[in-house]
Design a protein that fits this description.
The chain is mostly helical and 203 residues long. Helices cover 82% and strands 0% of the residues.
Length: 203
Amino acid sequence: LERRRHRHRLAQAEQEARRGGIRIVEDVVRLGRERGGRDRPAVHGRLPRAYWLGWLLLVAMIGVEFAFAFWGATLVERQTGASIGDAALAAGGFFGGMLVGRVVLSLPAAGTIAPRLLVRGGLVLSISGALLAWAAREPALGAGGLLVAGLGVAGLYPLGVSMTLPLGAAAPAAAAARLTLATGVAILVAPLALGVGADVVGL
């Protein structure tokens, strides 16, 4: 009789342990789902109008960079009468300027300046360099203009991203994906549009 009671108690204890284990597993799964839902970044969230304005500005800034990269050598060749080889060498001034500009922006001192001021300064340098390259009648002067433009363009993309991405904080994954789209749109459209526009006006 005692053995039967003992076995019965063991069976009850085993059942209770199983039930308790099942409850623990269910609680862990439930908490994991709840936490995962909170931590998962919003992909399809609605992005604010300010983000899209920044997105358009970023498309324009990336477009400027790749327009210089695509057509810089052609600009020097047509404006100065240089050979294709010399024009391509002069166009290297743009990439050299970008390299120097990004090295400068990586310095700690650059972090103390507001990004908007850096963007404005970059746009001024870009326009000044483009005008100088346009007015150049010597390859060296054209290379100097592209160098100045490269210094200005260097910070536009990284600064544009740093200014635009926080505007989509409500849906960070969607905001980052749209920024990738901005890069593709700018690279695809800007150089082609500039070339077609130049042909239309006879440049």
